[in-house]
Amino acid sequence: MSRLGCIALLIFLLTSLAPATAQEGEPGRDVYRVELVLIAHGDAEAAGAVPALDPTVTPRTARPLPPADPTRADRLPRRLPSRELRLEALLESRAAALPDQRPIGALGWQLGARALRAGRTVSLDGEFPGLLGFVRLRLSTRLVVELDLRWAPASRSEGEPLVFRLRERRAIRLNEVHYFDHPAFGVLLRIEREPSLPAVAGIAEASP
Question: Are 184 and 44 in contact (CB under 8 A)?
């Protein structure tokens, strides 16, 4: 099966197995859940991936996610512990059907509606081996995602390491699995509104 065919199958499987979620709710009170999975596509050189010549520069406005802390579950943004990640678990359950798609790592966090509407830039520097870059999220009339990632596979043993860049800006829909593609690697992303947290009082949200 071709790489594009594998990607289409992957998105179909993840979407069909994903639990139903609530639709967008009341602005200002909602809490949103963001999950992403970084995936390698077999042999990047054999796939014809072209190394990046221009560097990815993480903007100063990008903020790293705080460490997972169960004692501060009422503070946003909140990094999700690995046991709470849904997208990675769905991907692992279908790994046998997609042998050339190798997960590199998964990450998830919650943020408030105020931060999402103001625009939140999250630094991904060092979140996964060989990865630098950021993801920017903004919700207005549309939900817009901007990715700028630089990834260096660890498998190369001789010479300078290959570095591949994925850069894309796209409007997406809530509660759907989206794929950002590069011949060497890709990103699965889903953003959804948490169905239970908006009614919980006392959630503190940091300024965007």
Answer: yes
Residue 183 to residue 40: CA distance in whole angstroms: 9
Q: Is 101 in contact with 6 (CB distance < 8 Å)?
A: yes
Residue with tokens 């260096």: 152
Residue 163 has which token pair?
């570095």
How far, in Å, CA of 153 to CA of 176, rounded? 28
Rounded Cα distance, 16 and 116, in Å:
27
Domain that holds residue 66: 3-19+27-205
Strands (E), the chain: 31-41, 75-76, 78-79, 101-112, 120-123, 131-139, 143-151, 164-172, 178-181, 185-193, 204-205
Beta strands 143-151; 78-79: pairing state: unpaired
Query: What stretches of the chain show up as alpha helix (H) in DSSP?
Result: 3-17, 87-93, 113-118
pTM to 2 decimal places: 0.77
| Nearest CA-CA partner of 164 in 184, 139, 135, 136 | 184
Of all helices (H) and strands (E), which one includes residue 145? strand 143-151
For residue range 148-204, list pLDDT tens digits in order. 999 888 765 566 677 888 999 999 999 999 999 988 899 999 999 986 544 444 445
Read off the pLDDT of each residue in 21-44 and give the average, rounded to a whole number: 69
Task: Report d(CA 122, CA 137) in Å as an integer.
Answer: 8
- Count other C-beta atoms under 10 Å from residue 41's C-beta: 21
Number of domains observed in the structure of the chain: 1
